[in-house]
Amino acid sequence: MERAACRAAEPDLFFPVSAAGPAVAQVVAAKTVCRGCPVRAECLSYAVQTAQDYGIWGGATEEERRVARRQAARLAG
User: Fold this and answer.
1) Per-residue model confidence (pLDDT) at position 35
2) Domain spans of the chain, in order of start
3) For labelling, which of 26, 45, 46, 47 has a CA lying 20 to 30 Å from the CA of 70?
4) Is the pLDDT of residue 1 over 80?
């Protein structure tokens, strides 16, 4: 967390209220912060492993993480 790019950002940026309308710009802005983060992979892994249901984690939306969890479950099982 100490090295996370989002540490200096407004936390609300990473929790858009929807995936449509004005929130689309918010999602893009959050993903832009994540894109340059040195701990992006660790953040995404944490979010997938702990089933974080809300927000942008490791540059991925809720739906993108759900897809990643399903894919991981298929590979594991």
Assistant:
1) 96
2) 5-76
3) 26
4) no
Count helices and strands in the chain by DSSP H and E runs: 3, 0
Those residues with Cβ within 8 angstroms of residue 34's Cβ, 6 or more apart along the chain or in another chain: 5, 6, 40, 43, 56, 58, 59
Q: pTM for this one?
A: 0.86
What residues does 57 pair with on adjacent strands? 60
Q: What angle do CA 45, 66, 76 make, to 5 degrees?
A: 65
The burial of 29, by beta-carbon neighbours within 10 Å (0-12 exposed, 13-18 middle, 19 or more buried), is given as middle
Mean pLDDT computed over 1-30? 92
Judge whether 9 and 36 are in contact, CB under 8 Å: no
Q: How far apart are CA 58 and CA 3, in angstroms?
A: 13
